[in-house]
Amino acid sequence: MFDLIAANHHGAGWMTTGFAVFLWSVLPLMLPLYVYRLVRDARAFRTAEGPARADLSDRLFGWSMYLVVIVGPLFFATHRIWTTW
Amino acid sequence: MSYGKIINPANAATSTRILVLPVVVWAMATHRVVLALVLLIYSGVVDLVDGSIARYFKCAGPFGEMLDAISDAGLFLVTLVTAAATGYVDVLPVAVFLGVGAINALGRVIHIRRVGRVTNFRSYMSEAVGGATFFVLVGVLLDFYAETIIWWMAVLTVLVVVHDYIRILTMKPGEEVPHV
Fold first, then answer.
1. Do the beta carbons of residue B92 and residue B34 sit within 8 Å?
2. For chain B, which ranges sit under pLDDT 70?
3. Distance between terminal CA atoms of chain B?
4. Are the C-beta atoms of B24 and B138 separated by less than 8 Å?
5. pTM for the full model?
6. The dihedral of CA B102, B103, B105, B106: what is its sign?
7. From the CA of A31, how many Å to the nearest CA of chain B?
8. Helix A13-47 to helix B124-141 angle, to the nearest 10 degrees?
9. Rounded to an integer, what distance in angstroms lies between the CA atom of residue A69 and that of residue B108?
10. Residues in chain B within 8 Å Cβ distance of A33
11. Confidence of residue A2 (pLDDT cuts 50, 70, 90)
12. Closest approach of chain B CAs to the CA of A26, in angstroms?
């Protein structure tokens, strides 16, 4: 059974669990976009030179960071849902 | 109808984000978490649409951009400091995160002084971390792994600082970066 009143700071754990469910309903939609951009720019990076290569490098670091800030909260959301089940 | 550079619909919408800040502080301090959450979401939604409002009414300008940046920073700073001061989250991770964020902001100043413009270097890493901060604020309000998330944001911001400082300090004055 889903424990909707699992305690949080405010005694309203359903909001925390709801936030976890919200993250799981939004973030997986964003994930493929950044995977696509990462693969696309990684391919372009191999043949790029000069300032274009530097810009692609900035993008690759950026898309990697987007993946981290998507996968990280998904991990916490999974943990929250798993432990309140 | 034409609007002024300061008094226009976009700036009116953006300025309400600053006006709600004292209410956010009060709501957090008195643990009216739903009210604080509603105001936080309101601020986030206005932040999303104020650029579109400015373009629709043809009133975009530097003052609006500055007001938007002040509103972003104000919401972020006020919410995190209030969270630390009223016991939502430990003071140490918030202090470290804000400190690293200040070093990151200093990098922008150094970039403008060295290279001349802020637009010829776009930090995608910084945008990723910046985009996540709204959800961090919601996470802090809802006690969603608050300390852990703030520590992680501090670590990610350190990575942003290292990457951006290397880029900023190795760019030549006037160098153009093509956005391919």
1. no
2. 1-2, 116-120, 174, 176-180
3. 37
4. no
5. 0.86
6. positive
7. 13
8. 170
9. 22
10. none
11. very low
12. 12
